[in-house]
């Protein structure tokens, strides 16, 4: 249920309303916008009398929300959420580029790539330490040692790091990780999502290969229901009948999610296509549609990468791409401002 208050509501009446709502065993999320205050009621609202609330002087309208996701719903939170990570942020009109290798392979490799992507304009370093692989015989990542090497690259460059967690037991290694990534295979690992909701680090949830928008947003809801509102959504392609590309990038996810949720939206063109040659055009498309950022795989020697070499850009190719992405983003922001 959503309660939209009139402009500049009387604080005394508002406090009385909030106290009454708390006695109805629902949690209340207060969202203060430029022109209105919205109260989002989460819980069993079926017994709450809408007419009783509507009759209050400070109330403009009362609406029931049909979607099962509440905290992630834009109706509850009209303003875009900005997730702060160190000295940077995801959302809020800036372009975040998370770049780095699919897998951390050695200290020399990860530091070299980290320096290269930072020089090219990346604002975060991505790298896999724990690797979920389809085949049990494929390289599974360096694990705890991989996290240590990412930390070394962070100290060397100052870039915040984002890496994937596969199991709740691994959380103890993530003390110095800045953004915890939940991979597509774990998008509906609800026990893991609950645990991540009970801690404060930002969580980036990749879309499952066959998941709907609602299922994806419900995964975000699990984290937010636990109290952690620092959630980022990452579109990484879905499974279709097409076999030419690794997955099919659902580029419409960007404008659709802009309508449905206030959470930041990141696009991963690397995993979406599996082909380095297609990363740039899809990255341009994502930025043109207003994505808050990109997740791009960069490797200094893709031909000998231990995982996902064919979709990884060389540092020089990433630099060329980044040089074009930032002006494009500035143009999109400027055009949006002129049309609003």
The profile of the biggest β sheet is: 8 strands, parallel, barrel
The unreliable regions are none
Count of individual beta strands? 14
Q: Indicate the overall shape.
A: elongated
Helix content class: 25-40%
Q: Oligomeric state of the chains?
A: single chain
| Class based on secondary structure composition and strand pairing | alpha/beta
For the termini, the CA-CA separation is 28 Å
Put simply, the count of helices is: 10
**Taking all residues together, what is the mean pLDDT?**
93
Q: Strand order within the widest sheet? A: 7-8-9-10-11-12-13-14
Question: What is the radius of gyration?
Answer: 21 Å
State which percent range the strand residues make up.
Answer: 15-25%
């Amino acid at each position: 249920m959503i309660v939209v208050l009139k402009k500049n509501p009387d604080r005394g009446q508002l406090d009385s309303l909030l106290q009454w709502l708390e006695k109805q065993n629902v949690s209340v999320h207060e969202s203060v916008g430029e022109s209105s205050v919205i109260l989002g009621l989460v819980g069993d609202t079926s017994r709450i009398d809408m007419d009783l609330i509507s009759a209050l002087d400070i109330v403009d309208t009362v609406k029931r929300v049909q979607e099962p996701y509440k905290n992630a719903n834009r109706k509850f939170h009209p303003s875009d959420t900005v997730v702060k990570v160190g000295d940077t942020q995801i959302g809020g009109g800036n372009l975040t580029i998370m770049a780095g290798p699919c897998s951390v392979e050695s200290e020399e490799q990860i530091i070299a790539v980290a320096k290269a992507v930072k020089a090219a304009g990346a604002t975060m370093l991505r790298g896999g330490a724990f690797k979920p692989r389809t085949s049990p015989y494929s390289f599974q990542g360096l694990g705890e040692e991989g996290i240590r090497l990412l930390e070394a690259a962070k100290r060397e460059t100052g870039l915040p790091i984002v890496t994937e967690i596969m199991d709740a037991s691994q959380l103890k290694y993530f003390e110095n990780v800045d953004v915890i990534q939940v991979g597509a295979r774990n998008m509906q690992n609800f026990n893991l999502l609950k645990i991540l909701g009970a801690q404060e680090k930002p969580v980036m949830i990749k879309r499952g290969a066959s998941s709907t928008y609602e299922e994806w947003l419900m995964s975000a809801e699990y984290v937010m229901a636990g109290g952690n509102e620092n959630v980022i959504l990452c579109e990484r392609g879905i499974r279709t009948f097409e076999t030419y590309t690794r997955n099919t990038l659902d580029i419409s996810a960007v404008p659709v999610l802009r309508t449905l949720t206030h959470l930041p939206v990141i696009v991963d063109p690397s995993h979406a296509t599996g082909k380095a040659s297609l990363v740039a055009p899809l990255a341009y498309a994502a930025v043109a549609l207003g994505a808050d950022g990109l997740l791009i795989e960069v490797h200094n020697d893709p031909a000998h990468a231990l995982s996902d070499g064919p979709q990884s850009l060389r540092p020089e190719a990433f630099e060329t791409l980044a040089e074009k992405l930032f002006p494009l983003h500035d143009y999109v922001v400027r055009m949006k401002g002129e049309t609003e």
